[in-house]
Design brief:
The chain has nine helices and twelve strands. With 276 residues, the chain is α/β, with parallel strands linked by helices.
Length: 276
């Protein structure tokens, strides 16, 4: 059994930074709260709770003066204002790349553009980006057009470049003026390209990461177009039947997947097939 492991799988820069800030805050207090799960990985969130980092989905569930972590996805300006009104101690762990996208959205709206966000409507980063444009924004939809002749286009930072290109091409005929800021994180492109290369030479692909992780799900969707693929959260989900008549396996992971989870999967496969 040959194992091809992606060099760029696992935590991205933004997630590493958010976790570092959260752990430092927890070490210096009696516990902190992240507004929403700090990362989209159930097992990792459980581990963070043991370190004193809990998750709260609603601002009304926070106590006054509580230490609150803004996760790497960022939040809308009105959310920050509501936190300040509760006198919360805010630790802003917004990924610098997401922060850059927020500034571009705000700039475009200020210049009179209708801002089209290309991304997943329920993703926290997209919700935050919308907040920086006020009423001058909408989320790209394949079946609808914004109906504006002057539009600005900004992608979710973890978007697939191919999908962004299709959206821009689709929007072009209906507008007179278009201003584009390509804020897709380079780490995302590197991960996708590497996963594609591995999928082309491996017999099957294992994609590791939270089932609620958008970038992990996207990696899985891309891989399964090329090769039989499985999306798992932990080594415990591996099944020997998947490896029937298989001589090589490719392994990649989403940006919210700890290295330990990837290591566990590799170790289990090696135990299943000694001398791999």
């Amino acid at each position: 059994m040959k194992i091809y492991r992606a060099r760029h799988g696992g935590f991205c820069f933004g997630v590493k930074r958010a976790i570092k800030l959260a752990l430092e805050a927890a070490d210096n207090s009696h516990g902190v709260c992240s507004l929403g799960p700090l990362i989209h990985n159930r097992l990792a969130v459980d581990d963070l709770m043991k370190s004193g980092i809990r998750s709260c989905d609603e601002i009304r569930g926070l106590k006054k003066n509580e230490i609150v972590i803004i996760r790497s996805h960022g939040v809308a300006p009105d959310v920050m204002q509501r936190l300040r009104s509760k006198n919360c101690q805010i630790i802003d762990a917004t990924c610098p790349r997401v922060r850059r996208a927020q500034r571009y959205v705000e700039k475009l709206a200020g210049e009179g553009y209708h801002v089209v966000i290309v991304g997943e409507k329920d993703h926290p980063e997209v919700k935050g980006l919308l907040g920086y444009a006020g009423k001058r924004a909408s989320i790209y939809n394949d079946n609808e057009r914004p109906g504006k002749k002057k539009i600005g286009v900004v992608p979710q930072t973890t978007l697939n470049q191919e999908r962004f290109n299709r959206a821009v091409t689709d929007l072009m005929p209906d507008t007179i003026e278009m201003k584009i800021y390509n804020t897709i994180c380079q780490e995302t492109a590197v991960r996708i390209n590497e996963a594609v290369k591995i999928a082309k030479k491996a017999d099957i692909m294992i994609v590791i990461g939270g089932k609620n992780s958008a970038n992990t799900t996207r990696l899985y969707q891309i891989c399964r177009k090329l090769r039989r693929s499985y999306h798992i959260e932990s080594a415990g989900e591996l099944k020997r039947s998947w490896f029937s008549a298989v001589k090589s396996v490719g392994i990649t992971a989403g940006a919210s997947t700890p290295k330990q989870q990837v290591d566990d999967v590799v170790r289990k496969i090696r135990r299943m097939f000694p001398r791999s």
